[in-house]
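fwd from M.: "can u put these together and see what the complex looks like"

so here's what she sent:
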Amino acid sequence: MTTITKLIEAEDIRNRVRDMARQIAARMPVNDPVLICVLKGAFVLTADLLRELGELGLSPRVEFLRLSSYGDAKESSGEILVLGDVPKDTKGRHLLVVDDILDTGRSLDFAKSMFLRDGAASVATCTLLDKPQRRVVNMQADYVGFEIDDLFVVGYGIDYAEQYRHLPFVGTVD
Ligand code: IMP
Ligand code: MG
């Protein structure tokens, strides 16, 4: 049987997302950045961040980028695939790529390089969780919710084999 152990409380996530929104609002060059939600894991964070930014007077656009590296396994395959369409109209725009977890760094590195190559004016990155011990490429996010150890986690949009995304907190899977 799978056991989930709570690691980060829902309320702590809410407060941290609000803090990140304040930092982003203070540093974004214009008030209409484009949030690029990396699917699927970042959809909950993106929705919360979007509304916090709205509270601060911003009106960001939202686009979605579906990346795949994990499949249903707990270990990354190392290869990043784009599934479906790449967001259009990113040329000349200020982007904020939002991901759930910065792990090996391959996904965010891939996304950032791709959007810069496509002519974005700037590409900032935001992640709910950062596992610095796991990094294999040189990638740091501009906005990090929480640094965590090398643990496999679920909840707040993050899955294990498509389960547990609904949990309001982040927990570890045994
Ligand atoms: P990276 O490309 O290795 O940085 O991997 C990032 C992606 O791997 C994240 O967006 C997640 O989808 C997935 N991932 C990494 N660690 C975990 C985890 O602990 N639980 C679930 N998914 C994870
Ligand atoms: Mg993911």
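replying to her w this: The pocket of inosinic acid (ligand 1) is lined by residues 41, 69-70, 76, 99-107, 152-153, 158 (CB under 6 Å).
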